[in-house]
């Protein structure tokens, strides 16, 4: 891989070339290409590699760039990289990182290593990190940067400008300065645009935004994501319970939260852990996923037990065994559509008591309408296949019942789970398909036992 | 609902109160509360309502705020609001909107209304909108704002500052100014921090960032989302093929793209359309979802047909009918775990030819390991239930085979779909469960026919 072309390549091609360089032992060439790449790209490259080449490539990343690369690596792969580092290397990397990134890294370290890194940092840096680490994971306090520029309300813009000029550089993404009172209380924000375009003689108090959005240190990541997304923000002030300014959260960290939330929702729906690394080794992967398979096994044996209650009917009419998956499966599909919409509505906070009845009636209507259409078609196919009017009628009614049950539980299951404080994205689908399997088998085989035997 | 308390409420409570105000005919009280709310909150409130109250509430939003509210409403609900507006109202709303928001609104209007709105706009505004509209939907050109401040490279920072002071206000989220040459070609960006803290006598050319990130007008939304997320950007310049500066894209619009992409992925996995509104009426909802049910019906009849090939075995051993869903279902769950990871890996661009073999072997390993564990357990349960060693052995082998097939197709199906240019998030799960159903029934019933009859 050539260092000049490396910068124009898509990630997958980069992975391709890096692995071929490694395979051919061209480590020097790869090392110089890595040194030229943006740390974000190096992070992507490492994430796109199995453990062995990932380790080899990480060894080739220049030590003075590792901190920056680690900051860009997503949670799931970060731990595997840190495992490879010596304490001295970690300290060097820590010195290059922002507060919030370093806090994330320290989180996954064993306690003694955290201590080593913290004591090696400069007094000031260490104190800032310790402040951030004192807030629980997943809160605004943990996500904030304490590297903030704050100004007084009683000075003029000219003074602010002169004072800013004393800084060599502003913290990244400074779209506004924070205005604080004598007692450290947050008063509002002063837009950088105003600093530049405003009349130099005007007072900060007169041109600042007093009622700007803000976040409390204990706000959750999802609340922050909703706030930033709704209000199109770049940064917000983080305050403690007494309105004192603690730090600032910027959109780039919130973008990571949004991505991680979406990711978590997707992975959870398949019973995967949020930190699942595509390139994790076999045994831990198998163990993590096995739990989900075990839960599913219980529910599928419940369905099998329901079927077992109708051995008699199945023995007499073998067509029942052939057709029963149709009823169960159609219910599962229809139910998962309703479930997905309900889970999204809950996430967007759109489901209130006042509209619940409307929603339920609508979904039952959709279920009934699709039930009619597809029950008729399934009945026709069943009749053509097995030449039995009774069977055709039984499957049609069973299908109707199952689509209505699917619509009802597609709304009820996630809402009940949500009220119980359980995330419906994780267990909603399992419970729902258990319902549609059981109702599907029970109604089809039950009706057949009643009317066809 | 009281206008002062309204601002402190969570969205679901807001919906609750607004609907109770409507039900009791307190429209004036609701109208004054709406006038006090942030337009983003009004947007959320409207999205959380069924069609009837949504329409009634929309009527109460002050006309001079409708443009801003429309800009915050997500795509799925926006169309229902626009339908309610008179052409004059649309024109007034259009005048309050940013280029990129207005372009999105114009997209859903009938051609004659678009014409009416465009001709009513000021010359300058219209020309900007037409430029944005000339790019296809889903590209950087369509997402950009043409409201950009650009400066020359050969002036000093003092000149830039003086010149900025002539503006009453900067465009929102101006973290950097764009530097262009005499011919309109983009040269780089000048950080606002540098403008403020830099030496006033230094030349722009000497303090700008020449190799800053940029986007071509034809770049796709997902490429932009990846760029912003990877590089922690606030804004990028949008250029045409000749490097001329066309506009600027800011992170707030990209956050919407990221949210919509995640949403689309989630909805697609249940065969729902990306613009599905939780409160859409019954008939169109039923029609949209019916398509997916129809596709599923074909695949489940395929599975039923496979079962039908073994009527003979099913007639003789009724336990086969009871246990067959276990084999199929476990394969489906294991396969969907692999599928989810592969789809995510493809989205993150982590799957390259060089690591494909490693991945496949890993997933087969996970499948084999979990296959062994759960096959043993299932065999034990089957043996306890039906007291047949043959049946227990047959189900164990079938389960092993199906988990291996699930691992293989969890990797192969999405990769093949991706290479064919089909989004695996939509059809991957259907194809996968068809494979695991067919392999599950075929291996279990087939082995039973061979060894147990």
Automatic annotation (TrEMBL), chains A, B:
Q: Report the membrane topology from the UniProt record.
A: Multi-pass membrane protein
- What's in the GO CC field? plasma membrane
- The membrane-spanning stretches of this chain are 290-308, 320-343, 364-386, 392-417, 429-452
Among NCBIfam families, the record links this protein to: mgtE
> What is the name of the protein in this document?
Magnesium transporter MgtE
Question: What does UniProt give as the signal peptide span?
Answer: none
One of the entry's Gene Ontology molecular-function terms is: metal ion binding
Per the record, the gene is mgtE
Which species expresses this protein natively? Thiorhodococcus minor
User: Which parts of the sequence belong to the CBS domain?
Assistant: 208-264
């Amino acid at each position: 891989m050539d260092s000049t072309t490396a910068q124009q390549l898509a990630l997958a091609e980069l992975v391709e070339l890096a692995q071929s360089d490694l395979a051919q032992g061209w480590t020097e060439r790869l090392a110089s290409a890595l040194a030229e790449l943006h740390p974000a790209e190096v992070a992507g490259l490492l994430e796109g590699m199995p453990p062995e080449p990932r380790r080899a490539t990480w060894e080739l990343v220049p030590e003075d760039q590792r901190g920056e690369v680690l900051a860009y690596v997503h949670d799931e792969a970060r731990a595997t990289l840190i495992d490879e580092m010596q304490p001295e290397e970690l300290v060097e990397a820590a010195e290059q990182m922002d507060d919030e990134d370093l806090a994330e890294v320290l989180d996954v370290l064993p306690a003694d290593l955290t201590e080593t890194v913290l004591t090696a940092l400069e007094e000031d840096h260490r104190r800032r990190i310790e402040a951030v680490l004192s807030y629980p994971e997943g809160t605004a306090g943990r996500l904030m940067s304490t590297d903030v520029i704050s100004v007084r309300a009683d000075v003029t813009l000219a003074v602010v400008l002169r004072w800013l000029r004393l800084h060599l550089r502003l913290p990244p993404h400074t779209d506004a300065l924070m205005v604080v009172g004598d007692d450290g209380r947050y008063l509002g924000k002063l837009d950088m645009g105003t600093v530049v375009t405003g009349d130099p003689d005007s007072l900060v108090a007169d041109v600042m935004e007093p009622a700007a959005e803000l976040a409390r240190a204990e706000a959750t990541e999802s609340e922050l994501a909703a706030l930033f997304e709704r209000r199109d923000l770049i940064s917000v002030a983080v305050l403690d319970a007494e309105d004192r300014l603690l730090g600032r959260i910027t959109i780039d960290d919130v973008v990571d939260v949004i991505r991680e939330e979406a990711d978590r929702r997707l992975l959870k729906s398949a019973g995967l852990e949020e930190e699942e690394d595509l390139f994790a080794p076999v045994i831990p992967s198998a163990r993590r996923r096995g739990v989900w398979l075990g839960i599913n096994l219980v529910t599928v044996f419940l369905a099998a037990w329901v079927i077992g209650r109708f051995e008699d009917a199945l023995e007499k009419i073998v067509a029942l065994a052939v057709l029963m998956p149709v009823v169960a499966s159609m219910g599962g599909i229809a139910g998962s559509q309703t479930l997905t919409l309900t889970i999204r509505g809950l996430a967007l906070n759109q489901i209130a008591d006042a509209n619940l009845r409307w929603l339920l009636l609508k979904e039952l209507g959709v279920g009934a309408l699709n039930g009619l259409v597809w029950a008729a078609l399934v009945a026709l196919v069943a009749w053509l296949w097995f030449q039995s009017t009774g069977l055709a009628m039984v499957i049609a009614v069973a299908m109707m019942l199952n689509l209505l049950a699917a619509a009802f539980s597609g709304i009820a299951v996630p809402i009940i789970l949500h009220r119980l404080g359980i995330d419906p994205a994780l267990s909603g689908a399992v419970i729902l398909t258990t319902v549609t399997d059981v109702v599907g088998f029970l109604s089809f085989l039950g009706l057949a036992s009643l009317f066809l035997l």
